[in-house]
Amino acid sequence: MNIAMIGSGYVGLVSGSCFAEFGVNVTCIDIDQTKIDSLNRGEIPIYEPGLSDLVAKNVKEGRLHFSTQFQEPVSKADLVFIGVGTPSRRGDGFADLKYVYAAAKEIAKYLNGYTVIVDKSTVPVGTARNVERIIQEENPEADFDMASNPEFLREGAALSDFMRPDRVVLGVESDRAEALLRELYRPINLIEAPILVTGLESAELIKYASNAFLATKISFINEISTLCEAVGADVHAVAKGMGLDGRIGRKFLHAGPGYGGSCFPKDTQALARIAQENGVSCRIVEAVIEVNAAQKARMIKKIRSAIGGSEAGKTIAVLGLTFKPETDDMRDAPSLSILPALIEKGAIIKAHDPEGIEEARRQLPDNVQYFDDVMSTVDGADAIVLMTEWNAYRAMKLTDIKQKMSGNVFIDLRNVYEKEQMQKAGFEYCCVGRGQELKIS
User: Fold this and answer.
1) pTM
2) In whole angstroms, what is the distance from residue 291 CA to residue 237 CA?
3) Choosing from 18, 28, 228, 263, which is the catalytic residue?
4) In this predicted model, what pLDDT tens digit does every residue of 135-191 receive, in sequence order?
5) Correct CATH for 237-430 of 3.40.50.720, 3.30.465.10, 3.30.70.260, 3.40.190.150
6) CA-to-CA distance for 180 and 191, rounded, in angstroms?
7) Annotated catalytic residue 282
8) Using an 8 Å Cβ cutoff, are 190 and 219 in contact?
9) Is 386 helix (H, G, I), strand (E, B) or coil?
10) Domain 2-198 in this protein, CATH class
């Protein structure tokens, strides 16, 4: 079986590498010559645990290839996956589909024999129909079927999510397309992962609905954390008590500075926009978006309050910049909202992140100072803000950290540490939703 994967970004590279691991011949195609040259040199443009080794293995074994050319890979392909970016469109938050439709036009030129065209990108309902129409207009003789196969990959755990998924969703309209996709996913079926077959529109909506629901859980527990601070409750205990109910579950009930990344911000905005365009109210999703923005703003107030009411002239050591651990992704990370606001009011920011510094340099203000190790970052700091819960920050030698600082304030936006532990080490400790703090207006 031959696959052409259009797009060699996060979705395309992870999916293509995993399909190659299934024993399929995969060519990842990208119009970015620099990216393809890097991949052919064995340089991986994103950080994802295990991905570099998986790519190297399948390239060596001759199953994974990288190219800027469409013609040969597409003409030989049994399945062509579209895995290009769908960023939020400026102004209205709708998914920008120009890369998807450009890929469809290019694919249409080179189809040869029966082929299944598969949307792998996260796309609004109706996109598969539009891709189908474009291909038919560009190549009326093409023998193909459309399918939708949304991805459910968590950054930092993408390989395990792909190889051992909660479910595989196949949106199809023909038995031929379903049979070919089932054959592709046969290794997944052997481990008894559920395969759900739906229509095109349902498959497209499942992805958005899933991410919006998870984002809802995050925004919900963040609102509860504010209430916990007001009434003296502990959000850890509240979340645990909720999560033990099997109908609710424990995952995504972790208070913090708000969600970010490549999926939740973009997908909640897009889902709200889809509802508006179809004359449907989507008030819960709209509220989730508002709560998330408010939570990031509340974290700025929390930091300001913890360091005495003003950040002017204060040196703040920030540990973690990416939106979550085990990724170098800075898209919509809370740090992008919080740090510029602190800098604007006169804060001096010293920052560390195990993988995200290179990307942070492109997105944060130029006057942020970056360091390669934690001890250099906290040296002379008035306060520490733990922004992202990397494992490297979970077992720090707190007494050594305290000795390097000028001040003693530790602001834990991820609730990694316990109050008693931090006080014993000599810190004034501030966290999220654990009852011991003053109400922040």
Assistant:
1) 0.91
2) 22
3) 263
4) 999 999 999 999 999 999 999 999 999 999 999 999 999 999 999 999 999 999 888
5) 3.40.50.720
6) 18
7) no
8) no
9) strand
10) alpha beta
